[in-house]
Amino acid sequence: MISAGEDGRKYEIKLLVLAGLYLAAGAFAGYLWKGGDARSILVGASVPTLGFLLVSVLWQALKFRSDPFLLPVVAMLSYTGLIFLHRLNPFYAVRQFIWLIIGLFSLFLTTRLFTNYRRLSEYKYIYALMGALALITPIFLGVEQGGARSWLDFGYFHLQPSEFVKILVVLFLASFMSENKMVLAQDTEFFRGFNLPGPRAWGPLLGMWGISLLLLVFQRDLGAALIYFGTFLAMVYVATARMLYISMGVGLFMAGGALSYFLFDHVKLRVNIWLLNPYGFIELGDKTYNQAYQVIQSLFAIGAGGITGTGLGGGSPLFIPAVHTDFIFSAITEEMGLLGGIGIVLLYVFFIFRGLKLAIKARDDFSKLLAAGLTALMGLQAFTIIAGVTKLLPLTGVTLPFVSYGGSSLVANFIILGMLMKISHETRIHE
Amino acid sequence: MNDNIRKLGYIFLAIFTVLVLYLGYLSVVVGPTLATDPHNRRLAAAEEAITRGTIYDRRNVVLAEDKLVGGTRIRVYPRGRETAHLLGFVSQKYGRTGLESAFDSYLLAMDDAGRVRAFFSRLLGKKRYGYNVSLTIDSGLQGLALSMLGGRSGAVVAIDPKTGAVLAMVSSPTFDPGTIEEVVRSENVTKNGKTQEIKITRYDILKTQADSAPLLNRAARGLYPPGSTFKVITGAGVLEAGGQNAEPTVECKGSITVDGFVLKDTSVHGKVGLNEAVAVSCNSYFGELGLYLGEEGLKRSARSFGFELIDYGGKTGGAVNYPVVGAEIPYNPGTLPANRISATEVASTAIGQGRTLVSPLQMALVAAGIANGGVVMKPLVMDKVMDRSGSVNKKMSPVALHKAVSPETALALSTAMEEGVRRGTASQAVIPGIRVAGKTGSAQNPHGQTHAWFIGFAPADNPVIAVAVVVENAGGGGYVATPVAREIIREYLSK
Known about the structure:
The structure holds two protein chains of two kinds.
Chain A: H1 7-34, H2 38-61, H3 70-88, H4 90-113, H5 124-141, E1 143-145, E2 148-153, E3 158-159, H6 161-185, E4 188-191, E5 194-196, H7 199-218, H8 222-240, H9 243-263, H10 265-274, H11 286-291, H12 293-305, H13 328-361, H14 365-389, H15 407-429
Antiparallel strand pairs in A: 1-2, 2-3, 4-5
Helix pairs in contact in A: 1-2, 1-3, 2-3, 2-4, 3-4, 3-13, 4-15, 5-6, 6-8, 6-14, 6-15, 7-8, 7-9, 8-9, 8-14, 9-10, 12-13, 13-14, 13-15, 14-15
Chain B: H1 2-35, H2 42-49, E1 55-56, E2 62-69, E3 72-76, H3 84-87, E4 90-91, E5 95-96, H4 98-102, H5 104-107, H6 112-124, E6 132-135, H7 139-149, E7 154-159, E8 166-172, E9 183-191, E10 194-201, H8 202-208, H9 218-221, H10 231-242, E11 250-252, E12 255-258, E13 261-264, E14 270-272, H11 274-280, H12 283-304, E15 308-310, E16 335-337, H13 343-350, H14 360-371, E17 375-377, E18 382-386, E19 392-395, E20 400-403, H15 407-423, E21 437-443, E22 451-458, E23 465-471, H16 477-493
Parallel strand pairs in B: 1-6, 15-16
Antiparallel strand pairs in B: 1-2, 2-3, 4-5, 6-18, 7-8, 7-23, 9-10, 11-14, 12-13, 17-20, 18-19, 21-22, 22-23
């Protein structure tokens, strides 16, 4: 059993070296296929490996004792992102490379600065306010990208506040729930013997529902709405184990979803595309075909991959619009096959496993809720987008964590990783 | 709280398991359909990088191959017009049709082994070749069938009843698939004050000929009233319902009257049994049988041969969402109205009038089912898929599609159809020394003369070929359609 202690870092370093070989192999295959400037590919392949190793070595020096498996999993995901972005469009790979370095820096900073994080639970209403502000700003000042009005334009780059707000949301919920756990789990008499939770419990539930709908309506950000609400429900379940909340929450979300199907054309369109029969694409008229173009191209890519894939550079994933962000999973499945796609899914499953495990081991409710919430957030986001591009669920545009192109998303995810690592460290130094 | 976190973990495990299973389903089960969808731009991309496989008939006669002409690779069809509808064509401009489209995954080597080979060929800079496909088609029969139709509109389908292997499938009028992109003439069109030259290709002309519809594969997708060939289905229903002992006899007075409507006969046949009734194609007999079976029984019998019930929406043909049976060659099943029909329509449906519509392939399957002891085999056209070295990747495996009738019923119908050839309406099908079974039809329609039908098979004691022939607006089945079938049977059995 590999457990706590500085031994763990040695495993981490070994695994990171293996992940580095994966990146090197990917870069070499990409170079053989596409050519390009050998020196910049060498830099692109070695600097991320060295960066991850540096973080691990620094942790070892600082006697940081967190979970040793999360970082290698994230390295594999990030490397896959780099390899495929280089294959799809080197321009994005270069930018992603820079964001990855910034991400690693934020990871290290988080693990250094996120000390005494339990005291953070005292400022929960400040997060709520900050989060709300950050979410509302793009509605007035934002620019639209990919149908969602959730971006702020900073000239050199676009920032998506909702990527960072999700962290604030989990922080707020963890604070609120660890404080009000008893209240949430208790029933107050509601009406002549009907036992239902009181308004203190109802308040945040309705609040979260409201925020999700706000996102949906004003920013047209279907994916974020789904993930926020799903994370909220997961945390409520962890805090109270009450199926009543969950079923009410699911019911509310369904109602909101059904309502927006009838009210908003973009939601209706997504659902109608989802309902198309893949065996019937041949018979589709031009109009429907063009509306469903992106999803159909994504399915074509996955179908073209078969079990083994076409090999890096052998497929035609560029037929999919926006393949480098939301649809990168389809590109991976086309060229690395069903096996490669399942590999990516397993990396997320392993991430969730380690994340929940460290939540179980954490010593106080706030840490448990925070770790479980952040892990659920990550898992839901991965599930939502993979299910979307494969048409298991209606498509909602979110990034594939650590893999898709996108700076805000990458940095935010590294901060989440840092918080999980810190919680794990706090647990382990007391073992 | 730890328990709750654990349960949350199980929930995640469950949804990701569903995701992985679905991904496998998408990739392995739906994948081949997606890969050959004509919308898929990868097909054109793959075409650039590969020499498309050759298509052969059952005797290794080349039906379609890639050839280099003046440095460019083109697809040539040596049998041109004879196999046009069956093979279809591949065109950047006009899409992909027929078997060329259905077999894209073989012809472009799009399976997993092909993908691995493609990867190494790309690394080594080697040329790539698609798999070759051998069909069950007999190109000799194709040519004979087209010449026997002699320019008349219609279709011929021949099937091996034991395996469902399609031996011939011809539709007329036809076209030359090798020349569809040829520019015939150019026209100057003035629009908004600007004059533009528009090139008219052969395909553009073929497409505008709505009346003769030369691009339509009549054999699989043509919709015709079945005429008297439907009587074998009515007979099958009665034999199945009552058993062979209860074989009915009817006194034919030259017509029957149902609710005031009169169904006429060609003559007064007197007291007739099944054999006699099939032989002379007695309307009174089968009209009475239809009434005896009732609407339910009649529909049940038709469905057992693969017919489907659809809502005609008040129209007799061209209903919206007409059903298609998914097969290597997608075809229209026979159809009957789904809603309740009057007694008059029951009687007229029983003799092949009414609103029933059939494709020639469907009627060939009816004949083949009777020939094969009551079991209708799925129509298949791919015999084997081979790579360039000749090793076989995939072989046809026959599939039973419908258990239509019992072997006893099939035998009784076969005997009756043999009578029809020996001394009845199908006597033009007689071939000395061979026991041929057949049923003719002359289907009334609003477009003029009757459509001439023949369905049958031979030899009756050990059938190896079942045939359906339809010739549009050409007159009686006995003298127009039957000789076409006879020559095809004779040619096939002489080999």
